[in-house]
Write a structure and sequence with these properties.
heterodimer, A: alpha/beta, Beta Polymerase, domain 2, 5-stranded mixed beta sheet, two-stranded parallel ribbon, B: 199 residues, alpha/beta, Rossmann fold, 5-stranded parallel beta sheet, 7 helices, globular
Chain lengths: 196, 199
């Protein structure tokens, strides 16, 4: 139960906390991206919060949202106080946000991964370069508009016909599992909620 | 060798056999497959089982691993190859001296498996030629042994076309199929029909 952390955030930062909600014991605060680093530092240093355990940092691509396509998600926890909180910041089409690598050292590689996969620019990061993909890779593979079929080979493929036997063919892998996200219009589900 | 009959000499006897040079060289090649294990993923567990005494790859003259491609004849590609690793695999293959053979161990090496995405090479044959595919996720050591024997057979025949290890039929399933009035190999036939009907 860390609703008290949310309460504390609202007290101290007021309007910078845009929205909060709690569900199944998970508490989330959506905050102003411009005060991201400041709020994180407060969570770490405030004796009532004492968030000394950085768990995870990633991003989500909501392709259909017009204003805030990306959401950077941070999970932190306090080992002494035994509470945890999820912090989100909504970003636009060219996502950029302050780095947290100065607040929690562990955030360094998470931010690099996030940069690698989603192209989020972490301002002030000491070493912002790709961590999983190769340096020659172009684009952000986990963005929804990155084609599911697109690969970027480093070696030229063999031109000889590959004489494969029945279970294999030129459509290898699992084409039926590929999803395309070229749809831009928001979708409305059966209950009347749209993606936006 | 085609008309040869097997004859075992007694210790005190002497004799000779005639053969073609090519046959003899192929025979020598197939029993001295020095291997280079290019092991990248979970298939390695089955590879270890294969190399250990229970399944004992050494029975087939393929036990000596060489961790330099220059001394190896058989490249085992065991596991998923990412796009990032593909140049390394290509370099290793290029460094091997002829005659060289490649065995794709498992589904990922054969066709990318379920890693159908931006980061995985969908089958190593996009980059290097493959002699034997061993499907399975991971393949059982028995099927890899089948693959090794298939490769040896190919080497002996001088056949460089790609081969694939066929699924084994479960004897109990065969018995059940026979009892139900089907032909013995019905499970395998069904599988082949399923695979070829798509094309």
């Amino acid at each position: 139960m860390s609703t008290r952390v949310l309460q504390r955030l609202r007290e101290v930062f007021g309007d910078a906390v845009l929205e909060t909600h709690s569900q199944h014991g998970d508490d989330t605060a959506i905050v102003e991206p411009s005060r991201w680093q400041e709020i994180a530092t407060f969570l770490r240093d405030d004796p009532k919060c004492a968030m000394n355990h950085f768990i995870d940092l990633t991003a989500v691509d909501y392709l259909n949202r017009r204003e805030s396509r990306f959401e950077v998600v941070l999970h932190v926890r306090s080992i002494e106080k035994l509470h945890r909180v999820r912090l989100k910041a909504r970003l636009g089409d060219a996502p950029a946000i302050d780095t947290l690598s100065k607040v929690w050292v562990g955030a360094n590689w998470f931010e690099r991964e996030c940069f690698d996969m989603f192209g989020v620019d972490f301002v002030g990061h000491p070493d912002l370069r790709r961590i999983l993909m190769y340096p020659e890779f172009v684009g952000s593979p986990l963005r929804k508009d990155y084609s599911a079929q697109q690969t970027q080979p480093l070696v030229e493929y063999r031109s000889e016909a590959v004489g494969k036997l029945p279970p294999f063919d030129e459509h290898e892998g699992m084409p039926f599992g590929r999803q395309t996200h070229d749809r831009v219009a928001p979708r409305v589900n059966a209950l009347g909620f749209s993606d936006e | 060798m085609s008309q040869s009959q097997s004859y075992v000499f007694e210790g005190s006897e002497q004799g000779f056999a005639t053969t073609r040079l090519e046959d003899m060289l192929n025979w020598a090649k197939k029993y001295s497959l020095f291997q280079y294990p290019f092991v990248t993923a979970c298939c390695a567990m089955e590879f270890m089982a294969l190399a250990s005494p229970r399944f004992d790859m050494a029975r087939f003259g393929a036990e000596a691993p060489r961790f330099s491609p220059r001394q190896a004849d058989l490249l085992w590609v065991v596991g998923t190859i990412t796009q990032r690793q593909a140049p390394i695999l290509k370099t290793v293959y290029d460094q091997m001296a002829d005659p060289k053979y490649v065995l794709a161990f498992g589904t990922c090496a054969s066709c990318g498996g379920f890693y159908d995405n931006y980061t995985t090479l969908a089958g190593i044959d996009k980059v290097i030629p493959v002699d034997v595919y061993v499907p399975g996720c991971p393949p059982r050591p028995e099927s890899v042994i089948d693959g090794l024997l298939l490769l040896q057979d190919k080497i002996q025949r001088g056949d460089r076309t790609a081969g694939i290890v066929k699924p084994r039929t479960d004897p109990r399933q065969v018995a059940a199929d026979l009892a139900a009035g089907h032909s013995g190999d019905v499970a395998h036939t069904r599988l082949v029909e399923l695979r070829t009907s798509k094309a």
